[in-house]
Write a structure and sequence with these properties.
Layout (H helix, E strand, L loop, with lengths): L19 H5 L2 H33 L8 E10 L3 E2 L2 E2 L5 E11 L5 E3 L2 E7 L2 E8 L2 E3 L3 E11 L1 H5 L4 H8 L1 E16 L3 E16 L4 E12 L1
Antiparallel strand pairs: 1-4, 2-3, 4-9, 5-8, 5-10, 6-7, 6-10, 10-11, 11-12
InterPro entries: Lea14-like_2, LEA_2
Organism: Salix viminalis
Protein name: LATE EMBRYOGENESIS ABUNDANT (LEA) HYDROXYPROLINE-RICH GLYCOPROTEIN FAMILY
Length: 219
């Protein structure tokens, strides 16, 4: 009978395990401790959100893309001949419609640029491109006028014979524009864009044929 009435040991309860510090801690101190834990958790969550936001901005908004410069249309003016040769007293004018496309989410501000025209590998004209601003995700158009010096054109070997026999003038140009993109006053990147173009002027149609441009970028 004694064996049947023998008491069974009680299972340990998790809630009964408390430290003396918790037992002796007053109620206001316990509340303060819980508030500190909650505050730390909120601060950690805020830091994680900020870190995620910064990573997204760096990969999207803060990513600076290359501006694109194109020479859309070119016309030649005052190309005059006398006695089977180019008139040396009248400058030949080359007018180009140049566009600057800015794919970034901030304005691309550029300084004065230069456009150099070559014929037969020799420099025959040079001009400055005006400064400007290409707004975010917009395209800016501007006219660039270059005076071609007749004496330099006549100095190109075989130029007049090709012009008189074929009726075409092959020229190339190099445009250099430097500027910067600044995003939220935080990210600032300096960019130099170079565009090399080759084209052929047809005297019969008085139009440019076969224009081809190739951009180059320096950061």
């Amino acid at each position: 009978m004694a064996e049947r009435e023998q008491a069974k040991p009680l299972a340990p309860a998790a809630f009964q395990i408390r430290s003396d510090e918790d037992e002796n801690m007053p109620a206001p101190a316990k509340s303060h401790r819980r508030n500190c834990i909650k505050c730390c958790g909120c601060i950690t969550a805020i830091f994680l959100i900020l870190a995620t936001t910064i990573v997204v901005l760096v990969l999207t908004v803060f990513q600076v893309e290359d501006p694109v410069i194109r020479m859309n249309n070119v016309s030649v003016q005052r190309l005059e001949f006398a006695n089977g040769t180019l008139r040396a007293d009248v400058n030949v004018t080359l007018v180009a419609d140049v566009s600057v496309k800015n794919p970034n989410s901030a304005t691309f501000k550029f300084n004065n640029g230069t456009t150099t025209v070559y014929c037969g590998g020799m420099v025959v004209g040079e001009a400055n491109t005006p400064p400007g601003k290409a707004k975010a995700r917009r395209t800016l158009h501007m006219n660039v006028t270059v005076d071609l010096i007749p004496s330099k054109l006549l100095a190109v070997p075989g130029l007049m014979s090709d012009v008189l026999s074929v009726g075409k003038l092959n020229v190339s140009s190099n445009t250099v524009i430097g500027g910067k993109v600044r995003i939220l006053q935080i990210v600032k990147k300096y960019i130099v864009v170079r565009v090399n173009c080759t084209m052929t002027y047809n005297f019969a149609s008085q139009a440019i044929q076969g224009g081809h441009c190739k951009p180059h970028l320096s950061i």
